[in-house]
């Protein structure tokens, strides 16, 4: 059983389109995250939810909107895609949002903007 | 703010060689420290962790010791294998940041047979 699963694995689309990435975890964790990994492999936190409540909202364009329908799911919707959005997006989860909790990552969604 | 610094550049070494990847950090309070590994085409996997000073994390032959006096968490392995080729990330989280991970830039490790 995959602990943190993301779909799709690859997403190729054109500038200006709107797309969503889905994430589900079956670990019973309370906290979920979205990270962006750029072409140089640098990872940066974007958002985090704890029990469906937004607790981390980094400085990202408001074209990016996370949604957590329940604590096992955290989706990422992106409006009006731009070339600079090309990256790998990782979903992760942890037992809770207290410091020191290991995070479990999905395999990533590779987004390419044409 | 919290930050992690890893040594610059990829690391290329021969099978059975000794591996060291340096990691230093700056943090508010007392962070927990992690090493994550990313194999090609995959997500990040937790390799090891340490939550307080002088703790040693270890897994799969890798070790790292939490050194508060030098604010470091260097990763070591005594004898690497080709299967250890991956990108290695040092990271930290604190109780003040909702468990957000601050990552280093990562080091590509290539082990040659």
Report on this structure.
The complex is a heterodimer of chains A (114) and B (113). Chain A is mainly β. Chain A has no helices and 11 strands. In chain A, the strands form 2 sheets. In chain A, strands 2, 4, 5, 6, 9, 10 and 11 form a 7-stranded mixed β-sheet that branches. Chain A is globular and about 40 Å long. Chain B has 113 residues and is an all-beta fold. Chain B is built from no helices and 12 strands. In chain B, strands 2, 5, 6, 10, 11 and 12 form a 6-stranded mixed β-sheet that branches. In chain B, strand 7 (56-59) and strand 8 form a beta hairpin. The radius of gyration of chain B is 14 Å and the shape is globular.
Summarize the structure.
The complex is a heterodimer of chains A (114) and B (113). Chain A has 114 residues and is mostly beta strands.
Q: What is the average per-residue confidence, as pLDDT of chain A, rounded to a whole number?
A: 94
Average the pLDDT over all residues of chain B and give the rounded result: 94
**N/C terminus separation of chain B:** 41 Å
Order of helices and strands of chain B: EEEEEEEEEEEE
Largest sheet: number of strands, sense, barrel closure of chain A: 7 strands, mixed
For the terminal residues of chain A, how far apart are their CA atoms? 34 Å
Helix content of chain A: under 10%
Tell how many strands the DSSP assignment of chain A holds: 11
- The total beta strand count of chain B reads 12
**What would you report as the Rg of chain B, rounded to the nearest angstrom?**
14 Å
Helix content bin of chain B: under 10%
Structural class of chain B: mainly beta
């Amino acid at each position: 059983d995959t602990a943190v699963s993301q779909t799709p694995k690859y997403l190729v689309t054109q500038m200006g389109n709107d797309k969503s990435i889905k994430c589900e975890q079956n670990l019973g964790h309370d906290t979920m995250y979205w990270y962006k990994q750029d072409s140089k492999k640098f990872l940066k936190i974007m958002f985090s939810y704890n029990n469906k409540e937004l607790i981390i909202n980094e400085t990202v364009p408001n074209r990016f909107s996370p949604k957590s329908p329940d604590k096992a799911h955290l989706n990422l919707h992106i409006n009006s895609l731009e070339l600079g959005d090309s990256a790998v997006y990782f979903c992760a989860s942890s037992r809770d949002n207290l410091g020191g909790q290991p995070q479990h990552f999905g395999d990533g969604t590779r987004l390419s903007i044409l | 703010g919290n930050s992690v610094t890893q040594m610059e550049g990829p690391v290329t070494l021969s099978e059975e060689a000794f591996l060291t990847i340096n990691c230093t950090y700056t943090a508010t309070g007392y962070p927990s420290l992690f090493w994550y590994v990313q194999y090609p085409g995959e997500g990040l996997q937790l390799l090891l962790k340490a939550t307080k000073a002088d703790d040693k994390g270890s897994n799969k032959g890798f070790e790292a010791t939490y050194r508060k006096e030098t604010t470091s968490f260097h990763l070591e392995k005594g004898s690497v294998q080709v299967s250890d080729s991956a990108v290695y990330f040092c990271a930290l989280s604190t109780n003040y940041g909702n468990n957000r991970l601050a990552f280093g830039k990562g080091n590509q490790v290539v082990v040659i047979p």
